[in-house]
Amino acid sequence: MLLIFKTNVQCRADVELLQPYLDLQVGCSCWHFDLEDCDKILRVEVKNELLLGIVPLLKSQGFYCEELED
């Protein structure tokens, strides 16, 4: 299942800050930021329908994060 989030992550340094948390939460190869998109999209591949706390994780690091509906 692919989850898609709108964020305010702006640059590679922000991604590097979040990397250890996302790697621990969902795995090293299961997430990707599209910083070229106007919504700074985060895509997360999960094996079940659990949200896995992505929104609270980013918010705890000072970032905006909202899940987008299909």
Tell me what you see in this structure:
By secondary structure, the protein is α+β, with helices and mostly antiparallel strands. It has one domain (2-68): Alpha-Beta Plaits. Helix content is 31%, strand content 27%. It has helices at 12-26, 54-60; strands at 2-7, 31-34, 41-45, 65-68. It has a four-stranded antiparallel sheet, covered by helices on one side. The longest helix is centred in the N-terminal third of the chain and has 15 residues, at 12-26. The model has no long low-confidence stretch (mean pLDDT 91).
Short synopsis of the structure:
The protein has two helices and four strands.
Features:
70 residues, Alpha-Beta Plaits, single chain, globular, alpha+beta
Sequence-ordered SSE layout with sheet pairings:
Blueprint: E1 2-7, H1 12-26, E2 31-34, E3 41-45, H2 54-60, E4 65-68
Antiparallel strand pairs: 1-3, 1-4, 2-3
Structural class call reads alpha+beta
Strand order of the largest sheet: 2-3-1-4
Share in helix:
25-40%
Number of E-type strands: 4
Distance between the termini: 11 Å
Number of helices: 2
Order of helices and strands: EHEEHE
Mean pLDDT across the residues is 91
The domain tally reads 1
Structural shape: globular
Q: What oligomerization state is this entry in?
A: single chain
